[in-house]
Amino acid sequence: MTVTSLGVPRRLLDLTLDGEPVRAPEGTTLLDACRAAGKDLPALCHVDARTPASACRLCVVEVAGSRALVAACSREAEPGMDVRTDTERTRHSRRIVLELLASSVDLSTTPGIAEWIEEYGARPDRFGTDAARLEREPIIDNGLLVREDGKCLRCGQCVRACGGQGQHTFALSVSGRGFGSRVGVEYDAPLTDSACVFCGDCVDVCPTGALSVRSEFDLRTAGTWDEPAQAVTTTVCGHCGVGCELTLHVQDNEIVKVTSPPDSPVAHGNLCIKGRFGHQYIQNRD
Amino acid sequence: MDLRFGDSQPTDDERAAVDELLGPPASSWEGAERTAENLRYSRGGHAARDRRDLLLPGLHALNDRIGWISRGALAHLCRRLTVPPAEAYGVATFYALFSVSPRPTTVLHVCTDLTCTAAGAAALCAGLESRLEGDDRVTVRRAPCLGLCERAPAALTIKAGDPARTAVSAPATVEAAVLAATAPDSAPEEPPTEAAAPQAGDRRQTGAPAPSSPPQKQTGLPAPPPLPPQKHTAVPAPPPLPPLPLLTRVGVVDPSSLDDYRAHGGYTALRRAFVLGPAAVLREIVDSGLVGHGDAAFPGGPDPRATPIGLAWRAAASRPDHPHHLVCNAGGSGPGAFTDRVLMEGDPYALVEAMTIVAYAVGAPHGYLYLRGEHPRAARRMRRAVERARARGLLGDDILGRGHSFDIEIRRGAGAYVCGEETAVLRSIEGYRPEPRPTPPFPTQKGLFGRPTVVADVETLLDVLPILTGGPAAYRSRLVSVSGSVERPGVYELPSGTTLGELLARAGVRPDLRAVLVGGAAGRFVRPDEVDVPLRSGVVIAFDGTVPLPRLLLRVAEFFRDESCGQCVPCRIGTVRQEEALRRIVDRAGPAAADDVALLGEVGRAMRDASLCGLGRNAWNAVESGVERLGVYG
Q: With an 8 Å Cβ cutoff, are A178 and B610 in contact?
């Protein structure tokens, strides 16, 4: 008989969200509490089931008694908290953050960002034409993964997925600091000369599409990437006996991308090189 | 985890530098020659990974010996410590003092920050660069504040080798700095520390008596502890304290002599602490109302002035998870802040004693002293003090025969202002990139190595000594480092409530005062007619009219752009946009600057509200006050 651990029972905490009393289980973040209460906050660097990066600062909310705004993705709910999610202060900060981001990196492949820019009335062009941008050529040093620094938000979710919160490969790290910091391997070597095992987990957690699989990158470059037309099928990987769940993205009857559902009880969103990239044989008609 | 270290091999020098720090490798798993025996077991787990905190000392060892960190050297260090090379590379590239590309063995760091700029750093830099051009042994680096503001302009030579040599030139001339850079050993000795504490000099000149030893000293017996119930009914008259409790020994004692320190009242506070017991020591500190100074130059985080620091320490002491840790953060000093350096150079044993007391109170068997890599003399004196204290049984397993165990490890920073932030310094010690993390949980709940940790600055720790010898109601003062356009720059000890004007008068402010920056780079500008306010910060820089104010604001913005860790968007990009806007309007005013001033305000407000740590939250203060109070672009 399978015994499912229910864990330690969690207390319910009383707090106030925008003046309305809500109850949230102990240990939940304010972002989870907001979403449970039906309030969605913009959050770019938040990837489900991963330690919050607290880097994009889009999800900032006002907590009574706190001088600065608080990132909802990383702050745990406390009893008696008085949280305001939609005030002039939070809207101002979110608007400026969107303007800063959009003025410095290419957000063309970031899902949801256009709606937020419109919702908050952000005008990224007002920093002028000479505002520093991260203009970098895509790094194509292998046949599977493409890195585009010019799109990178530097939230470090890929570093976590590659390291202690996923593959334990530790091929990636943030190096440098400030505006010039970037994600890469030691001495900016090519991926093929690093510890990378090409599992592609970093691609799945990247919120801006700065990391992509080669097939997607090529289609995007050719202008034929058509996400709405893609069929998405979840299946089980046939390479070994572990039974990782795969999500196949199929366009024009061809697999263009493989992802893994993050809530899968088997793989928890992690795959290996075979599961993610070893699917060409399916298309072999001979 | 199965780490990949690549094929790059270290040179013999690099290997020797690492192995001198870590000892010879025990097996091929750590980089020794492979033997058949090594293949019969594998090494891993916590035993292999637990030395991650030696990464920063290891990088220092390489940088000190070779001058830069090569791929083979980094791989060897990583193999020794079981650290992924990518992560070690991320750490090495964070710090300004390290280089991961080849460079000359001698680096001449020339301070270009506020005080030094006002004292002519630009001309000094240009002169040095032209004089040293073509010399492939020396490279000139324009550095952020070196913490030598009382002797601006300052330059620091670091010459790699075995051992590495350093020479400070301050106030620097082109000739002196070139001499120091080409022959650090023959450079003239730095002036004594008391030159940086004008009050210490006054005391000797006027023939005032040296601070009297506390009365307990004669008998050698500690005073009996006051009974707790009496404390609230009748406060016993505390023994008279010297008028400058914190600077009392600076310039009076020989900083290298433990005996001299004891002859001037040293270690009476620790004896009293042992008599009182940990809980009572904490009660004395709470009763005194001591509040953390934060870092004078880094007033980040929750307002440290709001709650007595003793309550936080008590909370840490009562946490059930052990061991607790104590960290003295002397690593954060931005422009104009050099109090920590003067205290450590002038009275190193006092810090050792204060750390021992606080560690005793909070139950920490291990303490870390994190100091700046740019302060070689302070590091040397503190290292010597710790060694002497250890040899004499004042650190170690059985301090003063009381069975209490405590030791201090000294860690050198490597050029990162953000390490003044209390969570960043913990990451730095642990061997990770010193990026601040959101609080709560605070370090007192989850700090160094995940344990409850008390992080305190030098001045806060030293405040504990007079509290214990003089009682909670003892005379209270605070230290202020004054630099810039004053006759007698240095560290001043002032009774609380002293106004900025009184301090400036005492330091001999020069005529033509244009503006005063209170609080360092993260502080605010004050007009000369606004100085009659009580001083709330430990850093004061006075400016006359020689440097245009827009240039100063631009320099503050450059400082924050360089020092932002890059983790959160508002600070990483906001500091860049702030600098760009200030650069556009550096020669403009009025309507021509209005648009950019408005933009600065909007970005500044978002940085203050939404940044992750105190660095970003305070990056706009100086600019805001420059615009609003001084009317720089008006």
A: no
Q: Which residues pair with B483 in a beta bridge?
A: B541
Within 598-627 of B, beta carbons closer than 8 Å to A belong to 599, 602-603, 605-606, 608-612, 617
Of A74, A153, A178, the CB nearest to B564: A178
Question: pLDDT at position B300, please?
Answer: 39
The DSSP code for A271 is -
d(CA A259, CA A110): 17
pLDDT digits (tens, 9 = 90+) for B253-284: 999 999 999 999 999 999 999 999 999 999 99
CA distances from B374 to B379, B475, B484 (A): 9, 33, 20
Three-state SS letters, B36-55: HHHHHCCCCHHHHHCCHHHH
Distance from CA of A235 to the nearest CA of B (A): 29
**C-alpha B417 chain-centroid distance:** 9
pLDDT (tens digit per residue) in B370-413: 999 999 999 999 999 999 999 999 999 999 988 899 999 999 99
Residue B217's contacts (CB-CB under 8 Å, 6 or more residues apart) are B265, B268
Q: What is the pLDDT of residue B297?
A: 40
CA A283 to chain B, closest CA, distance in angstroms equals 34
Q: Report yes or no: B251 and B204 within 8 Å, Cβ to Cβ.
A: yes
Q: What is the DSSP string of B218-238?
A: HH-SPPPPPPHHHHHH-PPPP
Residues 557-586 of B with CB under 8 A from A: 561-570, 572-577, 580, 584
Of B3, B563, B605, the CB nearest to A195: B3
State the pLDDT at residue B471: 84
* Bridge partner list, A118: none
Q: Which residues of chain A have pLDDT under 70?
A: 1-3, 49
Q: Which of chain A's residues have a Cβ under 8 Å away from the Cβ of B617?
A: 68
Using one digit for the tens of pLDDT, what is the confidence trace for B99-123? 999 999 999 999 999 999 889 899 9
Q: Which of A30, A187, A192, A197 to mutate to test the interface with B (most CBs of B within 10 A)?
A: A187
Q: Who contacts B205 (Cβ-Cβ below 8 Å, separation ≥6)?
A: none
Q: Residues A138, A140, A144, A148: what is their CA dihedral angle, to the nearest 10 degrees?
A: -20
8 Å CB contact between A263 and A274? no
**Helix and strand numbers, DSSP H then E, in chain B:** 26, 14
pLDDT above 50 for B225: no
pTM (2 decimals)? 0.91
List of E strands, B452-537: 453-456, 477-484, 490-495, 513-518, 524-526
Distance from CA of B445 to the nearest CA of A (A): 14
> Which residues between 48 and 107 in chain B have a beta carbon less than 8 angstroms from any beta carbon of chain A?
71, 74, 84-90, 93-94, 100
This complex has an ipTM of 0.93
* Chain A residues within 8 A of B433 when measuring between CB atoms: 173-174
Q: Which residue of A has its CA nearest to B567?
A: A55
Cα B557 from Cα A267, distance rounded (Å): 46
Query: Which among B84, A172, B435, B65 has a CA at the least distance from the CA of B74?
Result: B84
Span between the terminal Cα atoms of chain B, in Å: 60
Task: Give CA–CA dist B407/B400, Å, rounded.
Answer: 13
Are residues B609 and A56, on separate chains, in Cβ contact within 8 Å?
Answer: no
User: Are the C-beta atoms of residues B587 and B632 closer than 8 Å to each other?
Assistant: no
Least confident of B201-205, B207-211, B360-364: B207-211
Other CB atoms within a 10 A radius of the CB of residue B615 amount to 29
DSSP states along B50-78: TTGGGHHHHHHHHHHHHSS--HHHHHHHH
